[in-house]
Amino acid sequence: MAKLIKIKLMRSLSKCEPRQLATILGLGLKKREQTRIVKDTLPIRGMIMKVQHMLEVEGFEGDDSLRQSTRRIRKAQKEQRK
To answer: What is this structure's pTM?
Structure first.
């Protein structure tokens, strides 16, 4: 099982610099309060460090195949609780 990171965009993109905007879009975040689950790799960690003041980051335990679908992740978490 690969290590995963859950990132959430906490600030607006309206007044950020073009480089920061490109980094956030590269992480797959487009709107405020949007959440993505990505693999914990060095390039991703570097991107997070560049815009860490705009993100909320936490570790995530889960199967790598689930990272693209938030709906499936929530369902799997509910099943684990039961």
So the answer is: 0.71
